[in-house]
Inverse folding.
């Protein structure tokens, strides 16, 4: 059987399919469920310094090609998070997503995560719908560079930088984030939904993030552009539902993928289905291992 194990930074994953941040990962129990169902690793919901309740409803709206969401980064805050994950058995396979409004907040959060015995963080530099954090921070190249340098300098954490596609030049952003151990591409695409009979916006926040099958070509383009210029480790995310989708990302340079919106439709067997499809594809196309197809089209 062809090997589907992969390596992101110094982290070896048994398989390349990872649970994306924000979908069915609000508790340690739901993270464990994904890991036990065949995910190679899982990313937590983004955690900030304080508890946040998020926006008024509606926070999610379904459209034919995916989802619009403006949940508003609701999260328990780092204190409650650390408490909940005491004794959690899967810290090596869990990547803690953090968000902040400035370098100090990011660094303080990263130190708490390391203190709680996790060894990897994903920096949410990309949430498109909350003022003062996420992509508002993540579009500021100097701040991105500083946040990553300070976390790398002040901790032993592996750092994954999750970048926003809502910029003109994603490569410039990636270069600002080059001290990260890996890039995660992409977060949701800024978007609006309209209800024509009520003449209201689909989301209470008006602007939200677009995810699901419709954004896959945008994510593929970001992975291609960044891999071509940097050759760094990339985790591809955006619209992945089938093993064929995952293969497309590998061919353009991703070494692993994350699955978000599809989980809401396909449920937990999705991990094993995608993994089996990848292994069968490698076998039938006569590749010995996943690494043999990474970036071959770039
Ligand atoms: C309901 C919802 C909540 C999300 N919350 C987060 C979050 O807290 N942090 C983050 O970095 N990304 C968040 N995302 C973005 C996803 O992790 C992912 O980047 C995006 O949805 C594209 O992947 P997909 O098409 O497979 O869903 C969220 C997405 C959705 C749909």
């Amino acid at each position: 059987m062809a090997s589907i194990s992969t390596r992101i930074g110094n982290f070896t994953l048994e398989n390349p399919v990872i649970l994306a941040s924000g979908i069915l990962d609000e508790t340690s129990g739901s993270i464990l469920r994904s890991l036990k169902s065949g995910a190679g690793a899982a990313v937590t919901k983004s955690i900030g310094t304080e508890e946040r309740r998020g926006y008024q409803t509606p926070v999610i709206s379904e459209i034919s090609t995916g989802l619009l969401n403006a949940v508003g980064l609701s999260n328990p805050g780092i204190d409650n998070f650390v408490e909940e994950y005491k004794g959690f058995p899967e810290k090596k396979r869990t990547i803690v997503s953090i968000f902040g409004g400035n370098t100090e907040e990011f660094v303080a959060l990263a130190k708490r995560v390391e203190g709680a015995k996790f060894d990897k963080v994903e920096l949410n530099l990309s949430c498109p719908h909350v003022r003062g954090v996420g992509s508002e921070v993540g579009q500021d190249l100097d701040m991105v560079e500083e946040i990553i340098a300070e976390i790398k300098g002040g901790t032993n954490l592996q750092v994954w930088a999750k970048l926003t596609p809502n910029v003109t030049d994603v490569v410039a952003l990636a270069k600002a984030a080059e001290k990260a151990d890996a890039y995660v591409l992409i977060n949701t695409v800024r978007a609006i939904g309209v209800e024509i009979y009520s003449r209201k916006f689909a989301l209470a926040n008006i602007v939200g993030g677009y995810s699901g099958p419709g954004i896959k070509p945008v994510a593929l383009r970001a992975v291609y552009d960044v891999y071509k210029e940097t050759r760094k480790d990339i985790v591809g995310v955006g619209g992945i539902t089938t093993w064929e989708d995952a293969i497309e990302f590998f061919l353009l340079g991703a070494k692993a993928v994350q699955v978000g919106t599809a989980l809401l439709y396909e449920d937990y067997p999705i991990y094993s289905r995608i993994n089996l499809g990848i292994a069968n594809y490698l076998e039938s196309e006569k590749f010995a291992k996943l690494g043999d197809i990474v970036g071959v089209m770039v």
Q: What stands out?
A: The longest strand covers residues 94-98.
